[in-house]
Each structure stands twice: as C-alpha cells, then as structure tokens.
Specification:
The complex is a heterodimer of chains A (786) and B (675).
Chain A: E1 6-12, H1 19-26, E2 32-37, H2 44-50, E3 54-57, H3 65-74, E4 79-82, E5 87-89, H4 94-102, E6 108-116, E7 121-132, H5 148-155, E8 160-169, H6 176-191, H7 200-212, H8 216-228, H9 237-250, H10 254-267, H11 273-284, H12 288-300, E9 313-314, E10 317-318, H13 319-329, E11 338-344, H14 351-359, E12 364-369, H15 376-382, E13 386-389, H16 396-406, E14 411-416, E15 419-420, H17 423-435, E16 440-448, E17 458-468, E18 492-501, H18 508-525, H19 530-543, H20 547-558, H21 569-582, H22 586-599, H23 604-616, H24 620-633, H25 650-662, H26 666-677, H27 683-692, H28 701-707, H29 713-725, H30 729-745, H31 753-772, H32 779-783
Parallel strand pairs in A: 1-2, 1-4, 2-3, 6-8, 11-12, 11-14, 12-13, 16-18
Antiparallel strand pairs in A: 4-7, 5-8, 6-7, 9-10, 14-17, 15-18, 16-17
Helix pairs in contact in A: 6-7, 7-8, 8-9, 9-10, 9-11, 10-11, 11-12, 12-13, 18-19, 19-20, 19-21, 20-21, 21-22, 21-23, 22-23, 23-24, 24-25, 25-26, 26-27, 27-29, 29-30, 29-31, 30-31
Chain B: E1 8-14, H1 21-28, E2 34-39, H2 46-52, E3 56-59, H3 66-75, E4 81-84, E5 89-90, H4 93-104, E6 110-118, E7 127-137, H5 153-159, E8 165-174, H6 182-201, H7 206-219, H8 222-235, H9 243-256, H10 260-273, H11 278-290, H12 294-305, E9 316-317, H13 323-335, H14 339-352, H15 356-368, H16 373-383, H17 388-397, H18 401-408, H19 414-427, H20 431-438, H21 448-460, E10 473-474, E11 477-478, H22 481-492, H23 502-517, H24 521-531, H25 536-549, H26 553-565, H27 571-583, H28 587-600, H29 605-629, H30 634-660
Parallel strand pairs in B: 1-2, 1-4, 2-3, 6-8
Antiparallel strand pairs in B: 4-7, 5-8, 6-7, 7-9, 10-11
Helix pairs in contact in B: 6-7, 7-8, 7-9, 8-9, 9-10, 9-11, 10-11, 11-12, 12-13, 13-14, 14-15, 15-17, 16-17, 16-18, 17-18, 18-19, 19-20, 19-21, 20-21, 21-22, 22-23, 23-24, 24-25, 25-26, 25-27, 26-27, 27-28, 27-29, 28-29, 29-30
Classes of the chains: A alpha/beta (786), B alpha/beta (675).
C-alpha cells in the first residue's frame, strides 16, 4: 500500500528562539514543511529555510486564520500536521503519527497538547492538529482559530478520532516578556470581535488572556460568562471549569469555590482534579482535617480520561506537600463542640489569619461585624464564618453577647479579630476540653509590642476566653468581663494556652486609627465612672506611647486606690511606673514601685522596673541586688498580673550584665550575658553587649564566642554590626567575613538577613560619617540621597 | 508653485555655523537645484560661506521658534521638492547620488531618512541611528509645527491623510551629538530654554518632556532627564511615533543612574509592546553584566544577535545586533573562562568592525588559549586578513616580540615599523641591532623623538651603563625637550643634579617607565630621583603616580608603598595607593588606604567616595559568594541590586567631582565603566 504523505504547516513571526526545536522534532517524519512568515525581523526565515522549509511571506492582518489557511493552500501532502513554533512533537509520538495516517478511516485526530512549565507538567488538553488535506477544511476565527467546525460540518463529529499523540507546548515557559507581548496582541484581536461571534469559547479565551496578565477579576467575569454559554460536553468544558475554580481561589473566594467544585464534581465525576482543588480550598481556610479527607478521596480515584486537564502540582506544591502539611496540622475530629465568637470592625489586615487559625477546631465561627467599611465581612464569609452585622453602640459587652446569642456550641472560644491561635494552641485546646473538668479557662493573651513578634518584647495577660456556653454574659461597656457571670471563681482555671495578639503587625495608619477609635469608645463607655475611665485611658495612652497622658490618668487612679477594684490595682502600678520611666521621671517611678512592691510582693515586673530605676539613678549596687532578687523570684505569674517574659530570667541577666559592666566587673558581666544568650529571646541583646565589651575580653572575640558555644553567623553578624556603628570598619569587615564564611558551611536555604543587616549598617555608618563633613549640596550627599 | 519636475530645493536654517556649513553644502552641491539658507543672526562668516556655495541667503530675526524659521526657508524654495538639512549634517555620497531618483518617484509625498549620529569624534566610536522625514513635496500647505523639534509630518497627514511617506533607506550623517564638544552643550542649553518655554503653555505635552529628557541626558543631568521621561511616559500614547524610543531612552537613563531593578522592569515592560527592539535587550544585557549575572547577560546579548533587521523608526545604537553584542558576549565568555567561545565571539565582532581595540582583545584571548606568537600572527594575517603593520602593532602590545619582528620583516616599512622593530629588539636584549633599526627612522618623522629615547636606553640598559653618545639634536628638533632630557640624563648618570623643567620632566618619566617595563628598576628610580631633586620619597611617589596613570598598577603599588615607608604618610600617597589597589581588585586594602586619606581630609569628597566604593566592593564580594552557593536567594539578589546601584552612583559621584575640578584631578579614574 502506498504511504500517505504528510505536510507540516506553520505560521511564525520572530520565533528564532523556538523554531529550530520544533522543526527538529518532526523533520524525519514530514514530507514537506510550509511556513508562512508574517513579518519576522529576526532570522526565523533563515533558520526555517536552512531546515528545508518552504517559506511564504505574508503581511500580518490581525487574523490568525488567514496565514494558517495560506499555509494549507500550499500544502501538497495527503495529511496536514500543524504545530506552533513553541511546540514540538513528543519523541515517542513520531511512530504512532506515521502509523495512524497510513491506515485510518478518520478525517482528523485529536492529539494531546501538554503545557510544559519550569516546575512540572501543568495542563494537558486535547486539540485537533492532524487532518486530511481537503479544500473544505479551513481555519476559522481571528484568534484561537479552530479547524474543528469545518470538519464537523463536512464529515460529522464521528469523523474525528482520538489519538495518544503528544505535543509539548513550551510557550508559557518562555520569558515573561515574550508571553506578555503575545497576550497583548491576542487581547487586541479579541477586543475587536463582533458581539455575535462572542460565544463560550470566546469568553473562555478572553478570560485566559486576562489571567495571564494577572487581571484576575476580569478573568473571572469572562469565565463565568463562558460557563453560562458552554455545554458540559464541549471539549474545552473541563479546562474552563478548572480555570474558573482556580481563579476563584486566587481571589480567595474559597466558599464560592467549594460550592461550585461540589456541583461540578457531579457533572464530571471522573475529573479528579476538582476534588484536589476542593481539598486545597479547605487547607487554605485552615480546615485541615477536611482537606485531608478530600486529599484521600482524590488519591483513591482512578486516573481520569486523557482529555481532562490534569496537574500534579498546584502553585509549586505537590499532593505530597499538601499531605505533609495536613498531617502536621490536623487535630483530628472527635473534638468538642466549639463556637468561636469574634467581633471586629475594619480588620481586613487580620481577620483572615484569625479565622484560619481556628477553623480546624471550630464547629462554627461567628463573626459579628460592628460596621466595617472594608473587606472584613466578605473575607470572613469566604473563610466559612457566619457573618452578622450589628450597629455599634460603644459597648464591647453588647457585641460580645450578640455573638454569644448566635452561638450554638457547647463551648465558646472568644477572640478579637486581630488575634490568632498559634498552631500548638489548637492541639492543647482539644486535649484540654476532652480531659478537663473546669467550666472556664484563663488563656494567655500575648500582645506583641512590635512587628518582629519577638517573645522578648511582649506583654502577657490572663483572660477568660474559653468557657462552657451555659448562658454566660459579658458585662461592662469597656474592659468587658465574662467572669462575673461565674458563680465561683474556682470554676475558672489558668491553662498554658496562648492566643497571639497581633495588633502591631498592621499598617501604622491602621494602628493609629484603631487606637483613636478605642479612646473614643472608652470615653463614652465609661462616662460617669471617672476612675474606670482614667484606668482604661491610662493603659491605652501607654500603648499609644503618650506617656505623659498615661501618667496623668494613672496618677488619678493612684490617688484613689481604695476605690479601685483590686483586680485593676497591679496594672495601675505597672503601667504608671513604665510610663514614668519612659518619661525619665525616675524619682517618682521609684516611689510608685515601692508602694506597688509592698502591696504585690510576688510581682517580679515591679522589682525589675525598680532595678532599672535604681540603675538610671546611678545606684548600681541597689540595681544589682534587685536584679538578683528578680532571678530568685522567677517570672511574673501571668494569671495574676500583666507579665513581661524574661524579667525573672534573661532580661534580668542582661540588665545585671550591664550593671556589672558599669561597675567595671567585666568577668561577671560577661558571664551574665553568656547566660542570657542561651535564651532565644535574648540572644541578640546578649551578644551585642558582649561585643561592647570586646576590648575587655580575655580572648579575641571570635574565640570567646566559640568557647562559650555561641559562635555562629548570627553572633558574628551582630559583632560586625556593632563594630560598624562604632566606626571600627576594619574590625567590622573582619567579622562580616567570618560570618559569611560560617554561613557558607550551612545547608541551603540560608538566611542572610543578619549578614545583610550588618552590611547595610556598615555602609550606612560610613555614609553618615562622610556626609557629616561634606556640604549638603555635595555630589556625594546628593547622589546617595542622604 | 509651478516647479520643474524633479527639482530639489535644499533648505537650511543657520546661526554661527562657520565651522560646519561648508561640509554640509559641499556634500549637496550639484545634487540639488538651489540652496536656501535662512540666517537667524550669525555673527561669524556663515552668510559668506553660504553665498560662496551659491546659496540664496535670507536674513530673518530669531524668534525662539524653529518652525517659524523653517517655514521661512521653505517659503523661498522654488523646487518641486524640499530637502531639509541642518548645518551640522552631511549627505553621504550614496544619498546625494540617489536624491534625483527619490524626486522622480511617482506617488510618494515625502521621504524619511536614517540620521546617523556619531557620539564621539573618533571614527570607530559609537553611533546612534534614528528616522526622520527630510524630503517632501513643496506645497504651500505643508508647514512645520512646534517651536522646537519641529515636525512637518503632522501637517502633511492632516492635509493629505492618504499621503505615502516612504523610507528611503538612505542615511544622513549628523555630527551634532558628538558629546565632547562644548558647542554641543551650548546648543543643548538653548534647546532646553526653548522647550521649557513651550512647556509653559502645554505642561503635559509628552513630546516636549521626551525631548527635555534627551537634552538633560546629553548634559549629564540624569535626575532631571529621568523626571521628564517619567512625565512623558505618563502622558504618551503607545502609538505615538516616539513611544519606543522614549522607553529605550528612559531605560538608558535609569541604567546610567544605577537603578538596575527599575531598568530591567522598564525594559521588560517596553518589550511587551516593542519586542522587536534589540536595544532593549542590549540594555538588559548591560545591566546583567554589571550585576555579574552572566547567564542572563549572555542570553540577552545572544538575543540581540538574532535580529536580522531593526525597524527604521527605532533609534538604535549601531552595532547592538552585531559587533557590540558579540564583543559583550566575548567578554562574558572570558569571565567564565570559556576562551574558545570568547574567541569565536570576538572574531564575529571583528568581522563586523575590525577595530584595533577588538583585535587587541582577540590577541589576548588567543594567548589565553595558549596560542604561540606565530600562531597568533597567522590567525591575524591569514584568517582575518589584517594588514601586516596593524598585526605588528597588536603583537607588540601583546608582548609577542619575536612574532612581531617576524611580522615586520627584515626591511621595516616606514619609520613606525622601524621604531617598533627596535623596541622589540631592545626587549629581547639585542641592543646593537636595535640601534641599527633606529637608524631607519626618517629624520623628519615625529617618531624621531621616541627613537632618540629608545636609542639612549640601548646604551643605558647595558651593564655597565654606557654613554649614549648623544647627538646634538633629534632629527630636525634641536633643543627639543626630549633631546635636552636625554642629554641631561646621559650626562648625569650617577651624579646628583636635577631636572626641573616641566616638559623635560615628562620625557624623563616616560623613559623611566620604559626602563621599568624593561626590568631596570635602578635606572628608572635614578631618573625619577633626578627629576625630584633627589628626594627619595618624592621620587617614589612621582614615579608611582606616573606609572599608575599609565595603567601599571602592580608596579605602582610597590613604588607607592616604598614612598609610604620612606617619609611621612600623606593623604595623596594613601589615595594613590588606594587607587592602585582598587584597580588590582584588592578592595579591602584599597579601603584601608582610602580610609587613611579620608581621615586626614574628611572634607574631601573624592576620598569619601573612593573609600565607600571600595567598602561596597568588599561587601559585594560577600553577597556574590553567597549567590554562588545559592543562586536564587531572594534576599541576596535584592542586596546585589542595591549594592551594585550604590557602586554605580559612587562612580557618578567621582566623575562629577573630577569634572567639577578638572585641574585637581590627580589621576585618571580607577574603575572605568563599561568594557
């Protein structure tokens, strides 16, 4: 039997980077190559000719079908194969391709086009690329041109066969610029489409182009239109559904995505990626157990038919990665029935991490929105919370109780929108409620004082946040309290479970706005109770770093100690002393602290602050004695007082070291700093202090650090940074070099943050030293934007 | 206007162009039918020169409006076609010859030309090219518009929307961009004044802002340039003719400012719309090179070489798709130690532009490939068909003296080859033969001075030193400083007299350098001592500085360290030592010296900048080491960009200090930018 001949038809413009690869992949199996060039300015044509192509030059007319059809006009083979320049025939498909055209009754074939990306195979979908050379088979559509309709019209759907021939598409692997150029060109064509030609396929393509540009909302709108106009049986249906879902997910509309995914799982029951995507939605929302069970469903499904777009990697994470994650984070169900109650207003910075942190253990999440103007309620909804709106009446209790009213769970966990549970707290809560016997629990609220979230810079307070529902009510417009609704204080037990308060991680302007609002709420909520008002305002002013106002308010309370509820008293001493110290009013601080210590002798923070006061007053002996006392007392009991971690340990050690150094007792000082360095929260400060004493060391600094077991890139970078600040450039460079050398021995990925901080300090110090001596209009000063 | 078919009127507007005008008119004479020169107030011989070429000279007072003047010139034109030139332009012969053909082409309303602008006055220097409409049918309705950067195209298209405007594929040479002329700066300042005035009535006009960007860039005021480009980009339509060039120039400006991340981002953005613009890839290549990101740089330059043609409407730097790209590729391969590929690329570059610089580079690369002198000579002469004399010069510079001699042959062609032969022989220790070769220098050739120095050396370098038997004069130059110098040195060998005259001193140091190169340190120090009044420290310092200026950094460093040890440590010596070390890439040492200089004179901006630059280089080394271990560490990558930008800004700072105070510039710069 005579062998059928095969023509490769292509169109190209400036494809010099790609065309060689494409032609090489087919040069042994095609009988001729027809290339229509639409105006290349690179050497595409030369390469094609060198590889035996017949090249036709045609002016580009914003219409992909025109040059494609020109190429068909010139083809003489029995069959046509068409490829884009950024595609190639998979090596193992050549034989099949030749065989298939030699003995087949079909008019055309679907082949599988696989998109290759840097990480892994992303997407495979079927496309007609192989068909008989007939005059009646021509491309249609100015863009995303298709031949399929002309084949169906002439020979019917059944004339098209399926094949396992694979084509690999490299287009999305190219440089971003190259893609963007193509996208803009494509969009220009699509936007010129007349309305009557705008079908489901059109909107699908439009959405895809928008997606490539990162315009997710526009993409979603186009996809949703496309879904309405597309029948499930249409060949691009599965791809469209999948892209719509991933776009919803990109827009963090997880609730909508889950709803839609469940629907389409009934339409395409074999399409396992839809289950995978649902699992990812749950995981993103913090519902790890649910995610895990869907992942297991996914893994149990048989492989889908070849024409479903499949992927094994989602945004760089494989199924295994997801599995590892959920295994680490899922607490397993069998968890008590918890309703999480959250109130908040304009908390878009925080609400996501808050809800995600509790979804795993919450039976339900109630979010009461007290009048947000931002995306807070929408975000809460998409993460699965039941969202309620209530007008704000300047009463925290009212809002909290509103949330309690909506809750149905056996247990209540109360959070603020700017709080979140750390991972380990979830496990602890489940265990506690399964085993504990109390009606309520005091949890550790850890307020971080800066963005570093350093355990060395936070305040811890105990609050009753977890309790049996049992119609508990909050009282108090501000400083709202639920404990008053417990008959017996012994019903509430402290537990070592932390809630992180992330207030200071928001943008500065948001923080300021929130604090102002809070002041207003306090003023109106405590109208008629000046004592309570001054107490609440005093603390608020302290956190706003308005120490003078804080002292004024808290002094008001101190003058009326006997009228103040005993529970507030320790805080008055603590915040008042802190504010006074910040204002450098040490004499008064000492007085306040003496009084406080006599009333609350187990409050380590007060002793610590007293030591600081003594030190600032020059009484190093007294300071040392007090600091030793702190070490003997241990940390402040957080269930009784506002506590600063470290005052009974590393903070006291560092301060003691500083006191010894002042007394020129360097050996003792160094010993203290070395001890403090063993605490993660105090490492930097301790090392800094050791570097300050560099010249007093018995050994060179690096050897000293090595001897004490604290020689690493971090301590060396700190050394470099401190020495740079002192203008000791050569020393600074030396330690930088040592740090960099040590770092090189670490396994990847390495964290260079410390080294870079040292570099920047070093350069910054020299720049500022130099510019001090130079006039403001010197080139040096101007060029370096000082 | 009832003009004769195919006649051409050349129209110019001029003021004080006596230096340029003749070149321009001469190039067009005989190819146009009349010349109209509108003079807007020359105070020099411009009108007379114009008349001497038969031009009709019209005096028209300058009204701060280029279009007004241009239109005045067209008004007097009688030809069927108008050709517009500026006085600082010239028609290449090919263009002049083909003007008539253009004028006879049916259906064409106007012609565009490629304006080729050399950027430096040297012949093989870089050239930019851009497109401009310069010839159009002489009709009353076609008039120039815009007070500056006046254009006639809008008026043509408005009156005749279907007008055919064709690209002539011909060049006009424009000398106005030659950067190293003060004249250019004056013109730029004048243009800025006009543009600012025009902007007052139309503050958002992107075209004015674009041109202001160009003008400030020419003046070196990069910050103003950037500001105007950014405003232009805000208002420009991507379809505007100058949009692509605007992006390119903005990228260039950002690059020169050291804003690497932004340069890349802007170039990528521009490539979305102008993917066929090779200059954008070229700029990216340069950025990656500066950042030491060699694979990325290589990909960018390779991309440049794949372009077959550049759309004529894009302003482009000549060579970006050929010799400039290949040269950069060669340098990248050299940095990677891939000598084979480097040689291939530099050879491709030479095929496009056989400049001396590229040939020298080829030679040094071949040496890296362990080519022997004769093999290099064969490559130059046979594969590349380089002239023997050029090959000889290159071989000498590469210290391939035997091969150089072979290339010159037994009978050197001309004085220069004779001198070169002698220099080779001296280096090979054949002093007598060298002296013979020196006899072949023609006594009236200027090289006779150099010959004299070399001849003296042949005597002085011997052991024991000999009397050079000084002639009374060098060639036709009795009393020439070189002669005086040689005589003086000769008579003073071993004595303690001094040479104080400045011009003599220069020659003496030159001889001292030559002696140093030839390995006779004693002789060179002896000479240096004679010019410095026998003060040891001064002698080391003077010689060290001179040697440093000539690029012999290792020798300079040793001499300057001697200077430091033989007297008080002055800031000048520290600075010079720092410069020598920086050029030897010993940045830690360089920083130490610069820091000492800076401590002595904290008010000295140059010392501060140099010290900081060394410090940055030292820190960069840590970052680069890290990146070598972990290519994709985002934190390091960001720091790489930051520090490299800082380095570039400091370079600017140094250059600005130099140019502000040229006289005090003690040295040529330590780190020249670019390759």
């Amino acid at each position: 039997m005579r062998t059928a001949t095969l023509s490769l038809c292509m169109i190209a413009k400036n494809e010099a980077d790609n065309i060689g690869r494409c032609l090489n992949s087919v040069k042994d199996i095609v009988d001729e190559i027809i290339l229509v060039d639409t105006g290349s300015t690179d050497n595409t044509i030369e390469i094609a000719k060198a590889m035996g192509a017949k090249v036709i030059e045609e002016e580009w007319q914003n219409d992909f079908s025109a040059p494609r059809n020109t190429s068909l006009e010139h083809a003489t083979g029995d069959w046509i194969l068409f490829l884009d320049c950024d595609e190639e025939l998979a090596p193992d498909s050549a034989v099949e391709l030749r065989q298939i055209i030699d003995n087949t009754p079909y008019e055309a074939f679907f082949v599988l086009v696989t998109n290759k990306t840097e990480t892994d195979i992303e997407l495979t979908f079927p496309s007609i690329r192989l068909f008989r050379n007939r005059k009646c088979f021509r491309f249609r559509g100015k863009i995303h041109e298709q031949i399929v309709n002309s084949i169906i019209e002439n020979y019917g759907q059944q004339s098209i066969g399926h094949s396992e021939i694979r084509i690999i598409h490299h287009g999305y692997n190219a440089s971003t610029t190259h893609i963007q150029a193509k996208v803009h060109r494509n969009l220009a064509i699509l936007e010129g489409y007349p309305d009557e030609k705008r079908d489901g396929f059109f909107f699908y393509n439009l959405g895809t182009e928008y997606l490539r540009l990162g315009e997710k909302k526009k993409a979603l709108a186009a996809y949703l239109k496309a879904l309405k106009m597309t029948k499930p049986t249409q060949s691009y249906g599965p791809v469209l559904v999948k892209r719509t879902m991933t776009t919803l997910m990109e827009l963090q509309r997880y609730r909508d995505a889950v709803e839609q995914l469940r629907y389409y799982q009934t339409i395409y029951p074999q399409f396992n990626d839809l289950v995978f995507l649902e699992a990812i939605c749950h995981i993103r929302c913090g519902r790890y157990s649910e995610g895990k069970s869907r992942l297991q469903d996914y893994l149990a499904m048989p492989p889908p038919p070849a024409w479903y777009p499949t992927e094994t990697v989602f945004q760089g994470s494989s199924v295994d990665d997801f599995m590892k994650r959920v295994n680490a984070l899922s607490t397993g169900k069998g968890c008590p029935d918890i309703s999480v109650c959250i109130i908040g207003k304009n908390e878009a910075d925080h609400i996501g991490s808050c809800i995600i942190s509790v979804n795993e253990i919450a039976e339900e999440v109630i979010f009461v929105d007290t009048g947000s103007s931002d995306k807070t309620p929408a975000a809460a909804y998409q993460l699965g919370a039941s969202v309620y709106h209530m007008p704000w009446h300047n009463s925290f209790s009212e809002a909290r109780n509103y949330a309690l009213d909506k809750a149905k769970g056996e247990w209540i966990l109360v959070l603020d929108a700017d709080e979140a549970l750390p991972d380990e707290s979830r496990e602890k809560i489940v265990k506690l409620l399964n085993e504990g016997t109390q009606k309520g629990y005091l949890l550790k609220i850890c307020t971080f004082l800066d963005r570093t979230l350093s355990p060395a810079n936070c305040h811890i307070t105990g609050q009753c946040r977890l309790f049996r529902r049992e119609n508990r009510r909050y009282t108090g417009a501000v400083l709202e309290d639920v404990t008053l609704s417990f008959a017996d204080d012994n019903d509430i037990a402290p537990v070592d479970i932390t809630i992180n308060h992330l207030h200071y991680t928001a943008e500065d302007k948001h923080i300021a706005a929130k604090r102002c609002l809070k002041l207003e709420v306090i003023r109106s909520g405590t109208a008629g109770d000046p004592l309570l008002q001054n107490y609440a305002l005093g603390i608020e002013h302290f956190y706003m770093q308005d120490f003078t106002s804080a002292v004024k308010c808290l002094d008001y309370c101190l003058e009326r100690i006997e009228y103040l509820p005993i529970a507030y008293l320790p805080n008055v001493f603590f915040y008042c002393a802190l504010s006074l110290i910040n204002n450098k009013n040490y004499d008064r601080a000492a007085e306040v602290l003496d009084q406080g210590i006599s009333l609350f002798p187990d409050y380590t923070d007060l002793v610590y602050l007293q030591a600081i006061t003594r030190f600032m007053q020059g009484e190093t002996g007294g300071a040392a004695r007090l600091l030793h006392q702190c070490l003997a007392m241990g940390e402040t009991p957080w269930d009784k007082y506002t506590a600063t971690p470290g005052v009974g340990s590393f903070k006291a050690m560092c301060s003691l070291g500083t006191v010894y150094a002042r007394q020129k007792n360097y050996d003792e000082a160094l010993e203290m700093f070395v001890q403090a360095a063993a605490f993660p929260g105090a490492f930097d400060q301790a090392v800094e202090n050791i570097v300050f004493l560099k010249d007093k060391l018995p050994l060179p600094l690096d050897r000293f650090l090595a001897e004490k077991g604290i020689l690493n890139d971090r301590s060396l970078s700190i050394a470099s940074r401190i020495l740079a600040k002192q203008g000791r450039y050569h020393d600074s460079l030396k330690y930088l070099s040592l740090a960099s050398g040590l770092m090189a021995k670490e396994p990847a990925p390495r964290s260079y943050t410390n080294i870079i901080q040292a570099i920047d300090t070093l350069l910054g110090k020299f720049i500022s030293e130099a510019s001090q001596n130079l006039p403001e209009d010197s080139v040096f000063t101007k060029e370096l934007n000082i | 206007m009832a003009a004769n078919k195919g006649t051409i009127s050349l129209c110019l507007i001029v003021r004080d162009e006596e230096k340029n005008l003749a070149r321009c008119l001469k190039s067009a004479l005989g190819y146009v039918d009349e010349i109209i020169v509108v003079d807007t107030g020359s105070r020099d011989a411009t009108p007379d020169i114009a008349k001497s070429y038969g031009a009709v000279v019209v005096h028209s007072p300058w009204q701060n409006d280029f279009s007004q003047a241009r239109n005045e010139s067209i008004k007097h034109a009688a030809g069927e076609w108008v050709l517009i030139l500026d006085a600082d332009e010239e028609l290449p012969a090919e263009t002049a010859h083909k003007l008539r053909d253009l004028a006879r082409a049916p259906g064409v309303e106007a012609w565009t030309f490629t304006i080729v602008s050399p950027v430096l006055s040297r012949k093989d220097g870089p050239k930019t090219k851009h497109l401009n409409l310069r010839m159009f049918r002489n009709k009353d309705i076609y008039r120039f518009e815009g007070k500056i950067h006046e254009q006639v195209k809008p008026s043509i298209l408005r009156h005749n929307p279907g007008a055919v405007i064709e690209y002539s594929n011909l060049a006009i040479i424009h000398y106005g961009y030659v950067r190293d002329t003060g004249e250019r700066r004056a013109k730029t300042r004048r243009n800025i004044a006009i543009l600012e005035e025009a902007l007052a009535s139309n503050p958002a006009d992107p075209f004015y802002h674009y041109n202001l960007g160009v003008s400030y860039f020419t003046l070196g005021d990069l910050k103003s340039s950037r500001r105007h480009y950014e405003t232009a980009l805000q208002h420009a339509d991507l379809k505007a003719g100058f949009a692509a060039v605007l992006y390119r120039n903005y990228c260039l400006c950002l690059y020169e400012l050291g804003e690497y991340a932004e340069t890349l981002a802007t170039a990528d953005k521009a490539l979305i719309y102008f993917a066929d613009y090779p200059d954008l890839y070229f700029i990216k290549g340069q950025v990656f090179c500066d950042l030491g990101m060699l694979p990325e740089a290589k990909a960018s330059f390779l991309k440049c070489t794949r372009f077959r043609k550049i759309p004529p409407e894009y302003t482009t730097m000549e060579g970006v798709t050929s010799y400039l790209a290949f040269e950069n590729l060669a340098e990248i391969c050299a940095l990677e130690g891939n000598w084979d590929e480097a040689v291939d690329h530099i050879t491709r570059a030479i095929e496009h532009q056989p400049s001396y610089r590229l040939l020298s580079r080829l030679c040094s690369l071949l040496q890296k490939k362990n080519y022997q002198g004769n093999a290099i000579a064969a490559y130059l002469l046979e594969s590349l068909k380089i002239k023997r004399q050029t090959a000889a010069r290159i071989l000498f510079d590469a210290q391939e003296f035997e091969a150089c001699l072979a290339c010159i042959g037994d009978t050197p062609a001309g004085s220069e080859m004779a001198l070169l032969k002698a220099k080779c022989l001296i280096r090979l220790g054949h002093y007598r033969k060298a002296a013979e070769a020196l006899q072949k220098i023609h006594p009236r050739c200027h090289l006779v001075v150099e010959g004299l120095k070399q001849k003296s050396l042949t005597a002085w370098l011997r052991n024991p030193r000999r009397d050079a038997a000084m002639p009374a004069s060098a060639g036709n130059n009795p009393g020439h400083p070189a002669t005086v110098c040689c005589q003086a040195i000769n008579s003073l060998i071993g004595s303690t007299a001094t040479l104080q005259q400045q011009d003599v001193r220069e020659h003496a140091l030159d001889i001292a350098l030559e002696a140093l190169r030839l390995g006779d340190r004693d002789l060179s120090m002896m000479i240096s001592l004679t010019v410095t009044g026998h003060k040891i420290q001064e002698a080391y310092r003077t010689l060290g500085e001179y040697v440093l200026q000539k690029g012999c950094y290792a020798e300079a460093k040793e001499l300057l360290k001697q200077a430091l040890n033989s007297g008080s440590a002055t800031k000048e010596i520290y600075y010079l030592l720092g410069t020598a070390c920086a050029n030897l890439n010993l940045h830690g040492k360089a920083f130490g010296y610069f820091l000492e200089a800076f401590k002595q004179a904290p008010e000295n901006e140059l010392f501060a900048a140099c010290a900081l630059q060394s410090l940055v280089n030292e820190c960069l080394a840590f970052v680069i080491n890290g990146l070598n271990l972990e290519k994709n560490n985002a934190v390091l990558r960001q720091e790489l960009f930051r520090l490299t930008s800082l380095k570039r800004k400091l370079q600017y700072c140094k250059e600005a200090v130099y140019s502000a105070d040229r006289h005090s510039q003690p040295l040529h710069d330590c780190q020249k930018r670019g390759r």
